[in-house]
Amino acid sequence: MEIVSIIGSGTMGRGIAFSSAVAGFTTFVQDINESALHNCKSYIEKQFNRYVEKGQLTGNEADAAINRIRYTTELEEAAKDADLVIEAVLEIMDLKIEIFKQLDRLVKPSTILATNTSTMSPTEIAAQTSRPDRCIALHFFNPVPKMKLIEVICGLETSEETITKSFEFGRALGKDCVKINEFPGFAVSRMNCLIGNEAMNMVMEGVGTIEDIDKAIKLGLNHPMGPLELADLVGLDTRLRNMEYLYKTLGEKYRPCPVLVKYVKAGRLGKKSGKGFYNYN
After folding, report:
1. Cα angle at 89 between 179 and 142, to 5 degrees?
2. 20 to 30 A from 244, CA-CA: which of 94, 121, 179, 197?
3. Nearest of 14, 9, 65, 12 to residue 44 by alpha carbon
């Protein structure tokens, strides 16, 4: 595996691209939005500067990694020579399926197609292609360069070869991989969404302040980040889409908290919009 393409230059896409380039892969980042690509490039180069300042990379290593990244608005350019394509767009099933259909026509027969979905069915997505055996879900976590886990979620027809190559890619990035059999929400998102949603319900019920609920979970359960702070980092719109999907597929216990729905309607999407449960302005 030499060439990796990332479809989508948002928070997850740029983190995966950074990690891929550091690991030595020629890395394409594709987005239909030129401005988004520019922001992605700026963010990645700032990250490399920080790594050099902290002594985590040498200047030469950073320069070499930066030169391994290509940015494009053209899906064909990004996909045609790739050995692995990772889709990292919004958690909208129809959008993911449409991208996989296009990729299936553009990539080499040997190419693996992966989705970075945190909740949705890789089987359903793969079924829209001619290569369900070479489709898989690789669930990265935010921030990608720091988080050590990749959930490798197997669809109904995912081959052992695809699983093996996915694990090899994860290890090349310095990640630990766990194999998860497909079920809505997989392992981490099912638990994470429940904890976050219950924290939101506690805010709504006046159990404690936002700060105190986060502090209680961090110190009481030894979590590195409070569930409300984490929801802001993920994006409250993303969290709401995840909750709606889990509510639809797994039932009542995943009903989104009314506060979450209200905040998204108000445009309070978390850190990326400047305000969510916390104010970042």
Report:
1. 60
2. 179
3. 14
HSE, CB side, 13 Å, CA atoms: give it for residue 17. 34
Query: CA–CA separation, 233 vs 273, rounded Å?
Result: 10
- Token pair 């987005």 is found at 31
What gap in Å lies between CA 15 and CA 21, rounded to an integer?
A: 10
Tokens 């569930």, located at residue: 227
pLDDT in tens, 25-36: 999 999 999 999
Which tens digit of pLDDT belongs to each residue from 38-76? 999 999 999 999 999 999 999 999 999 999 999 999 999
